[in-house]
Design goal:
By secondary structure, this protein is α/β, with parallel strands linked by helices. It has 2 domains: 6-91, Arc Repressor Mutant, subunit A (Orthogonal Bundle), CATH 1.10.10; 94-242, 3-Layer(aba) Sandwich (Trna Endonuclease, Chain: A, domain 1), CATH 3.40.1350.10. Helices cover 48% and strands 18% of the residues. The chain is built from 8 helices and 8 strands, in the order αβααββααβββαβαβα. The chain has helices at residues 6-16, 25-36, 42-70, 93-103, 106-119, 174-194, 217-226, 233-242, and strands at 23-24, 76-81, 84-89, 123-126, 137-143, 156-164, 205-211, 229-231. The strands form 2 sheets. The chain has a 5-stranded mixed β-sheet with strand order 4-5-6-7-8, with helices on both faces. A 3-stranded antiparallel β-sheet has the order 1-3-2. The protein is elongated, with a radius of gyration of 20 Å. It starts with 5 loop residues before the first helix and ends with a helix. The model has no long low-confidence stretch (mean pLDDT 89).
């Protein structure tokens, strides 16, 4: 077996860590290896921790910076003291909700995404299935913020979305996003040709890629560069709580 990448272990810590008080990072990493049941001996685990502990810590610090950029409050705090790293986790209700969603069916996750868009004022539809063409949900009638009353279709936003109910450690790749963008362009073209009474050729469109896991860094960079509305599991559940969806 090849050794897990530090990013994978850092992601697993965020998803599975639960110690409410500060513990040494190496102890928490060790517990994650045990939870994951990775086929390494005790000596191999501690050799790995010694070799990659700092890299894992750096990944966790980067996640905090990314969270600030994305408006996401992460569920842990990490500190460094004299070359040692200490980490603790917060018992946030969105983490409990995330666990429920991860254990549910992909279809119910699609409806969860639909409910969020409905709460935001959209008229949403789940379109996922074997012939969905890569689009799991759509939403129309979303209003531009602070725009009063009924307005022309050019000021109503169309959302095309993909919902990925991924398990812990299975993260969205750049390839997934590229395929989604291609599918969305095709769907936009179809809608604006066949339903021109509802969708104008210049009507604003948002592409939403939402997952119960997280994004690899290159996927996140790609989403930012293109302006995709990407939400990982924690961000999605935080939005749900803000909207009163539990």
């Amino acid at each position: 077996m090849s050794l897990p990448k530090p990013q994978y272990i850092a992601n697993s810590l965020v998803e599975l860590g639960n110690n409410p008080t500060f513990k040494k990072l190496e102890e928490v990493i060790y517990s994650i290896f045990k939870i994951k049941n990775l086929p390494l001996s005790e000596e191999e685990i501690w050799d790995y921790i010694e070799q990659f502990k700092k890299d894992i810590a750096n990944e966790l610090f980067l996640k905090i910076d990314d969270g600030k950029h994305d408006g996401v409050l992460l569920n842990y705090e990490i500190n460094e003291d004299s070359g040692d790293f200490y980490i603790k986790f917060f018992d946030k209700p969105e983490i409990t909700l995330l666990r429920k969603i991860q254990a549910d069916t992909p279809q119910n996750f699609e409806f969860f995404c639909k409910n969020i868009l409905d709460k935001l004022g959209g008229n949403s539809l789940v379109s996922g299935g074997p012939y969905d063409g890569g689009i799991d949900f759509t939403s129309t009638e979303l209003q531009l913020k602070n725009l009063p009353g009924i307005s022309t279709k050019g000021s109503r936003i169309l959302v095309l979305g993909q919902a990925k109910r991924y398990a812990d450690g299975n993260h969205v790749k750049e390839k997934d996003l590229r395929e989604f963008v291609g599918a969305s362009i095709k769907r936009m073209d179809e809608l604006k040709k066949t339903r021109s009474d509802q969708f104008g050729i210049l009507q604003p469109v948002i592409l939403a890629f939402w997952t119960t896991s997280d994004f690899h860094q290159n996927a996140k960079d790609y989403a930012r560069d293109l302006g995709i509305w990407y939400l990982n599991g924690i961000a999605l559940c935080q939005l749900a709580f803000q909207l009163g969806i539990e």
